[in-house]
Write a structure and sequence with these properties.
binds zinc ion
Length: about 270
């Protein structure tokens, strides 16, 4: 009888240990799980800055239409995620203000949406950039074009402390502040390019690195999407169509959803 009681006491004690220690032993499994709660969507250009100009359409209008659709799909299907736009109309937030909006709101993701252009009219396809300087000489034209937006701002010389978007030397300033986020940025960029290629049937030019000003300062994973070339007649026509915009926006939405599930470990 006594033995049985002892056994019972020992058993109760063993059962109680995890509860007892669980209260104050830090344990990885007890840390609150990461949840992606806020996304900043950035429609490139706007207002006095049209961006690239196709034969019939301006980049700023395509970017805004697709960005608003991505936001709409996110709000409809992921109500637990807050969507913040850097612009939801034809205004012109500066290249400094755009990532600032994401930092001030402590967003978990920053997605900048653009459309491309090239002197070679046959160039077409999508590409998604993460912040980085690896092989950036190959993409210098597009980097220069996107960053040159600051030249439209008054006082840009003071605002950007001598940064000259047209000079390769200026990019020495771009240290790897995004290094902590590069892994997750590439994960999202991979999802986006895969979706464009496999679900929308676009030509993917791949995931690339570029020192884009807008990707320099966000304190969160960040990507810059190029939806296609407005200098290519076929691609311009596709991006101008309502179906084209919806396909591209839903591809970006599905990529964000897949990325969220992946990093939240679902
Ligand atoms: Zn652009």
């Amino acid at each position: 009888m006594e033995r049985f009681n002892n056994k019972k006491i020992i058993l109760s004690f063993l059962i109680a240990i995890p509860f007892f220690f669980g209260g104050f032993i830090p344990n990885e499994t007890m840390m609150p799980a990461f949840r992606m709660k806020k996304i900043v969507l950035d429609a490139g250009h706007g207002g006095s800055d049209p961006g690239n100009i196709g034969s019939k359409v301006r980049e700023k209008d395509i970017n805004l239409a697709v960005t608003l659709l991505v936001g709409k799909y996110l709000k409809e299907n992921m109500p637990d995620v807050e969507v913040i736009y850097t612009r939801d109309d034809d205004s012109f937030p500066t290249l400094k203000q755009r990532p600032n909006i994401a930092n001030i709101n402590k967003a978990d993701l920053f997605v900048s949406i653009h459309s491309n252009s090239a002197p070679n009219k046959s160039a077409f396809g999508t590409e998604t950039f993460v912040m980085g300087t690896k092989h950036f000489e190959a993409n210098f034209d597009i980097v220069k074009r996107e960053n040159s937006v600051i030249l439209l701002e008054e006082n840009y010389a003071e605002e950007y402390e001598g940064f000259d978007p047209t000079s390769p030397e200026s990019y020495m300033l771009f240290n790897l502040t995004q290094k902590a986020y590069i892994g997750n940025s590439i994960t999202l960029a991979d999802h986006i390019e895969t979706q464009f290629r496999d679900r929308v049937g676009r030509k993917s030019r791949g995931v690339k690195q570029g020192p884009f000003y807008v990707l320099w300062t966000p304190s969160m994973p960040s990507v810059l999407v190029e939806l296609g070339f407005l200098s290519n007649t076929e691609e311009e026509k596709f991006l101008m169509s309502q179906a084209g915009k919806e396909y591209m926006a839903s591809a970006i939405y599905r990529s964000i959803k897949a990325y969220k599930e992946q990093i939240e470990g679902n």
